[in-house]
Amino acid sequence: MTRKTAAPGGPATAEGPPAVALRGATASLGGRPVLRGVDLTVAPGETVALLGANGSGKSTTIRAVLGQVPLTGGELELFGTPLARFRDWQRLGYVPQRSTAAAGVPATVREVVAAGRLARRKFRPLGRADKAAVRHALEQVGMDDRAKDPVDALSGGQHQRVLIARALAAEPELLIMDEPLAGVDVGNQEALAATLREQVDQGTSVLLVLHELGPLAPLIDRAVVLRDGQVERVDNPDRLHDLACHPHGSEPAEAAPAPKIETGSLT
Ligand SMILES: Nc1ncnc2c1ncn2[C@@H]1O[C@H](COP(=O)(O)OP(=O)(O)OP(=O)(O)O)[C@@H](O)[C@H]1O
């Protein structure tokens, strides 16, 4: 197992370059500044949760990490390579925020999950290893018995599991998930937490947006709390219990205030 002990505010003992190193990131959407100097590091094997109120910039941050939102300032490196030179997109798996992108098209569950191999295969037919990865991903989310079903026939929670399987099929070194538990019932949340535990134990780095930590709480090494496009604070595992109860940063009356950590100290 490659898990490591993270110091408050940043990874302490990671080997190799961070999977994600975002420094002083600024970005605007619709002419309005949405990210206002975000620092975020995900070390190899580390699991980092992005928390914060609606509109605080969580999704924009991860879309910036994926190169989908251009930075107006700051720097981004993925696996030690500046974004402009980064080409190894097959090293990343992405679960977008609750999406219906695959619905309405005549695709089966297996076809949607197989799309997770696209970055590796380009448009070549799936090989044996690809098929095995797709099968394994379907098993991981408990959807192997639905492989031939049209995605249109699925419930919202099942759809979400298929999107997670699509990301897992890529066998990513960095898994990025935007609210992966949204619409997933409690039993399946537990199952997904177990799946994610397997990935983390294999050394996968994880960056995920969460509204509530729920069953994922024990997996999380660090929680970065955003507020109005800036890092409000960073919480280490000692604080995660409180966060589970107060995911948007409000303090319980009896709790000591979380230490304020300057954004510049994260990397
Ligand atoms: N395409 C867009 N054009 C203009 N403004 C946008 C766009 N997308 C997001 N925003 C704004 O940017 C801000 C940050 O949005 P973002 O989706 O990153 O927040 P979030 O923390 O992920 O919120 P939520 O928890 O509701 O998903 C919000 O004020 C939002 O209204």
From TrEMBL:
InterPro entries: AAA+_ATPase (IPR003593), ABC_transporter-like_ATP-bd (IPR003439), Metal_Ion_Import_ABC (IPR050153), P-loop_NTPase (IPR027417). The lineage of its organism: Bacteria, Bacillati, Actinomycetota, Actinomycetes, Kitasatosporales. GO terms for molecular function: ATP binding; ATP hydrolysis activity. Residues 239-251 have a biased composition (Basic and acidic residues). It comes from the Bacteria. Residues 239-267 are annotated as: Disordered. This is Metal ABC transporter ATP-binding protein. The keyword Cytoplasm does not apply. Belongs to the ABC transporter superfamily.
